[in-house]
């Protein structure tokens, strides 16, 4: 049973990675990610 559970977890992670990669390839999502990253950096530099 443990083997099946491990196999399922691996399949779920692989699918999530595939979906994330597809979403990140979209230009509008790349722009949002860059903006979010810049905001985080600005907050870190402000402290």
Summary of the model, kept short:
With 47 residues, this protein is mainly α. It contains two helices and no strands. The protein is elongated and about 50 Å long.
**What sequence of helices (H) and strands (E) makes up the elements?**
HH
Total strands: 0
The chain-level structural class is mainly alpha
* Multimerization state: single chain
Hey, roughly how much beta strand do the residues contain? under 5%
Largest sheet: none
Backbone CA Rg: 17 Å
Helix share, percent? over 70%
Give me the number of helical elements: 2
Choose one word for the global shape.
Answer: elongated
- Integer average pLDDT: 93
Through-space gap between termini: 50 Å
Low-confidence stretches: none
Region (Disordered): 22-47
Biased composition (Basic and acidic residues): 23-37
Give a description of the structure.
- This protein has 47 residues and is an all-alpha fold.
- The protein has helices at residues 2-24, 27-46.
- The model has no long low-confidence stretch (mean pLDDT 93).
- Residues 22-47 are annotated as: Disordered.
- Residues 23-37 have a biased composition (Basic and acidic residues).
